[in-house]
Amino acid sequence: MKKWRLNLFSWAALLMLAAAGMRCGGEDSPASPTGYDLDKNPLPRFVRANFIDVGRMARISRFRSAAGGDYSDDLEHCRSMLHYFEPRPDLEWASLPLFSPVDGKIVRIVQNQPVLELVIQAQEYPDVEFHLFNLSPLETLRVGGSVRAGESVGSYVERQTPTAIAVSVNTTWGRRLISWFDIITDSLWFTYGECGIANASEFIISKEARDTDPLTCSGGLFTSAGRLENWTVLNCHWDIEGWGIPRFVDVNYIDFDRVYKISKFRSAVGHDYSDDDEDCRSMKHYFWLDGSDGWETARIFSPVNGTVVWRFEEFLGTQLWIRSEEYPDFQFCIFHLLLADSTLAEGRQVSAGELLGTHFSGRTYSDIAVALITPYRRRLISWFDVMTDALFQRYQARGLADRSDVIISRAERDAHPLTCAGENFIGGTGVLEDWVTLR
């Protein structure tokens, strides 16, 4: 995984700027006819829409943390009673959209460079306001205008300024801040659970715990950070439907000049190799080498920086699974290897372009599979879908016009299905072409 973190000085400077623009309460707070009595009527979990794509987050600051500056209410002080959402470092942050979490009305848009605050008053519970900080709002937004839950309101600003959300309640005891995680529905919570979080308490420092480990402040800025953890790290999995397939592989796994033919993804070559969503089709690529030399001399390389997560001795050579460092949900399986280092074991780190060995022999094709593997599914995708444009251009120079030249679509295969008995194709290979020949 590519590493990115602001240095301590940069974080402090930027969060000081953010803290200067984040103050709760004041004369511009919207009035409520009576105020909400939190003691008698705890707020229900009524928020059904995320304000940001959780799956793209790397970590979230905890309620009452020391992240940013003092952002507290009428009953507590010197603590950060909101949540910062920091995206994954491999994403372009400025492109991430932000949404209204509820049906409601825009009651304030406050510009304090570089911090912008958008305040939305909930229609269902008018005493509740949602404060979105550090966003680039849509130009069409106006104070007094209405928004719907899930409606786009802007986008993330930049890497140097983390987006944050605060939830304030106008109560009978004054202005109170509560955690975003106190009012989201169970169905919305599921999106956080998918990122490896067991329960909402992982995002919240209790009042008692913070009081026992107090922070110190001066002018709204923290002068001590306390001992408690300020951030909760997420382990979110790649969403192909929502984000597409990343093109990040720029190393061909096999001697490029030795490749003669390539089987198509979802072909009838070999045997059934399918995933949790499809069946009875070969969802990998076989590489047929030329006859310039013995196939056992064709070199095999690691396509990515990663970790060997499985080594399996096949009938013809070794099968090796490598998990990408940059995109850990993606794994690469190389079949029929004759390893250069027989001691290569699970847990070993390998580098893109590192020589793994050679193809086992001319008794079998060389083949590679690419899988997206999460706790919830195993999905196979084409090798050609994950390679960079630069690598694919090498294939274009040898006659491929488009990546689809080596991929049979799911719809096309479903329209021309194969028949299987166990892993074996029976009744012929169908009418679709299985191979592409390079020039």
CATH superfamily of the largest domain: Glucose Permease (Domain IIA)
Strand content: 25-35%
| CATH topology descriptor of the largest domain | Glucose Permease (Domain IIA)
Give the proportion of residues in helices: 10-25%
Annotated CATH architecture of the largest domain: Distorted Sandwich
Measured between the Cα atoms of the first and last residue, the distance is: 36 Å
What profile does the largest beta sheet have? 11 strands, antiparallel
Shape: elongated
Number of domains: 2
Ordered list of secondary-structure elements with their pairings:
Layout: H1 8-21, E1 57-61, E2 83-87, E3 97-99, E4 104-112, E5 115-122, E6 128-133, E7 135-137, E8 146-147, E9 152-156, E10 163-171, E11 174-178, H2 186-193, H3 207-212, E12 216-218, E13 221-224, E14 231-233, H4 240-243, E15 259-263, E16 285-289, E17 299-301, E18 306-314, E19 317-324, E20 330-339, E21 349-350, E22 355-359, E23 366-374, E24 377-381, H5 383-386, H6 389-396, H7 410-415, E25 419-421, E26 424-426, E27 435-437
Antiparallel strand pairs: 1-2, 1-14, 2-10, 3-9, 4-5, 4-8, 5-6, 6-10, 7-9, 10-11, 12-13, 15-16, 15-27, 16-23, 17-22, 18-19, 18-21, 19-20, 20-22, 20-23, 23-24, 25-26
